[in-house]
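go over my protein:
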Amino acid sequence: MKYSNQEKKKKVIIYTRVSIDDQAETGFSLANQEDLLRRECTRRGFEIVEHYRDDGYSATTFERPAFQRLHAYLKQHKKQVELILVTKWC
């Protein structure tokens, strides 16, 4: 489904993360995640305002450098970002 370009574009942040080399080698690399998210944003007509990436950090904690910067950005830009897009894999 294509979305109308006449609608106001939603402002979004994309966030990508890998914790181990295996993820990068099995198709879950940061580049693959970013490509997937960017294509989805294009399909939906979203405007990406920021992209944050953490390489080598576990999802078991929020103490990740890029995630902390993302959190700070949201605090500084209240109500300016409508969505945060991430990928999920099993």
